[in-house]
Design goal:
With 456 residues, the protein is an alpha+beta fold. It has twelve helices and twelve strands. The longest helix is centred in the middle third of the chain and has 51 residues, at 209-259. The structure holds adenosine-5'-diphosphate.
Length: 456
């Protein structure tokens, strides 16, 4: 609407206030040009052609032309249109010729009022020369018709057009506003629903492309939020379950020691062992949570140092010796030639530890685990293989997610669902490739490749 009003204001301003001005300037320019053309044609063309030019230019530019001889008498040919102040007016024309002679440039440009019609008139004049001799005079008369009546007509027309267009603009803007605003309005209402936590909200992007794109973006955000929400719920459920179970056990066994087994050293030690192992489990969970949140915060920096990878693998496998001896697990280590690597030793240790720990937890009944070091041209490949159930194809992409735990394992495994998330975070920080090959019923091989190898 504002745009329409501005356009019309400009139109009114120029059409109504400046029309007279424009018109006058146009007439002045056309009179001057006509005079120039006729005078030019006199000096260049034949008499016949010259009078043709007089008539043509007179018609085209709506001016009266009078050709006078050198005594200021009218020559035979002239071009007369309408109201004319120079046509056959002997004396006054002679006066004009005198003025031409008196002027320095040999040209006169006058604006006079016609006493009969009351209109302003432009009278232009110049000498007609061939070589150095003056052959006569050329007078030219153009009427400046007042544009008041034209302005009135335009005004009326403009008024009607303005009214029609304002109504049209109003209807159009109303239609457009509704067309643009309605889908946005619908989407805003749905977004409010979503903000209240309703993840089943539908976003209707009908209307136009941008609304559809907005709706699609919000549907995507809704799906992501819904995933985060589910994960958060699972997290709370898992964490509270994982924390509550050892805490309940701790309390129960502490009470048992107080009330029953306090005096029985064998029973008491048994109960204390359980308390210790449950405390370990709690510590494991809390540590994993802390490690992962630190890694994910992006604030942790790598502190690379050089170390021999075969030695480090042997050392970590050695830590599982107690467990292997106690529960009959066998970890087979196939080292390659010792290679010095340069990476964050503490974090890489944790990766290897988590992979071996998982392999022990999920290996088959034969309790075999294989750790291999394979030196390649551009790094050292480390593989940890087990003989367990393997992982289903569609689960493989999920196992590295936080708190993802599969329930389909033969054995009840103590875990937090964070081990592989820590592995992933550390390897990503180092920019190392990693992955898993798995065959259902046969086992899985987790691998990663250390690229920062020191040249020998
Ligand atoms: P946790 O072992 O504490 O459950 P992880 O993040 O280490 O958590 O592992 C996530 C899930 O990936 C496990 O619950 C298990 O289902 C699967 N997984 C990990 N390692 C193996 C493996 N070696 N064999 C089979 N499944 C595995």
């Amino acid at each position: 609407m504002i745009f329409t009003i501005i356009v019309f204001a400009l139109l009114w301003f120029f059409q109504i206030f400046f029309l007279q001005n424009f018109y006058e300037r146009m007439r002045i320019r056309s009179a001057a040009k006509s005079m120039e053309c006729i005078a030019d044609s006199y000096s260049r063309a034949s008499k016949e052609d010259f009078y043709d030019t007089v008539n043509r230019i007179g018609y085209e530019n709506d001016v009266c032309v009078q050709v006078l001889d050198k005594y200021a008498r009218p020559a035979k040919k002239k071009h007369v249109i309408g109201d004319c102040m120079i046509h056959d007016r002997g004396n006054s024309n002679a006066a004009l010729c005198e003025m031409i002679d008196a002027s320095d440039s040999g040209v006169i440009r006058l604006k006079v009022k016609n006493p009969r019609s009351g209109y302003d008139m432009l009278i232009y004049g110049c000498r007609l020369e061939s070589g150095d001799s003056v052959d006569g005079y050329l007078l030219l008369n153009s009427v400046l018709v007042p544009v008041g009546s034209t302005v009135d007509i335009i005004k009326r027309q403009l008024m009607i057009i303005t009214l029609i267009l304002i109504v049209f603009a109003f209807i159009l803007s109303l239609y457009l506003a509704r067309r643009i605003a309605m889908p946005i309005d619908r989407i805003t209402k749905s977004a409010e629903q979503l903000a209240k936590g309703d993840f089943n909200t539908k976003f209707d992007g009908r209307g136009y492309l941008e609304a559809k794109q907005l709706a699609d973006a919000l549907i995507y955000a809704e799906n992501e939020l819904s995933k985060v929400d589910t994960m958060q719920r699972d997290l709370i459920a898992n964490v509270s379950h994982d924390l509550r179970t050892p805490l309940t056990m701790l309390k129960a066994y502490a009470e048992m020691i107080r009330d029953l087994s306090g005096d029985n050293p064998v029973k008491r030690n048994e109960h204390l062992e359980i308390i210790i192992s449950e405390t370990d489990r709690l510590a494991l969970l809390v540590n994993d949570m802390l490690d992962l949140s630190k890694l994910e915060s992006g604030k942790q920096k790598l502190t690379p140092s050089e170390f021999g990878i075969s030695g480090k693998l042997g050392e970590i496998i050695g830590r599982f010796k107690g467990l292997s001896d106690k529960n009959g697990y066998q970890i087979h280590f196939t080292p390659d030639e010792e290679r010095t690597v340069c990476c964050d030793v503490v974090k890489i240790e944790q990766v290897i530890y988590n992979l071996i720990n998982n392999a022990i937890n999920y290996t088959g009944d034969d309790k075999q685990v294989f750790v291999r070091q394979i030196n390649c041209a551009d790094g050292v490949l480390i593989e940890v293989e087990d003989t367990g159930d393997g992982i289903e194809e569609d689960k493989i992409k999920l196992i590295f997610d936080k708190y993802y735990r599969s329930e389909n394992h033969k054995r009840e495994v103590v875990g937090t669902g964070l081990g592989l998330s820590i592995v992933k975070a550390v390897l990503k920080m180092h920019n190392y490739d990693y992955g898993v090959r798995s065959t259902l019923g046969k086992g899985s091989t987790f691998w990663f490749k250390i690229n920062d190898v020191k040249e020998k």
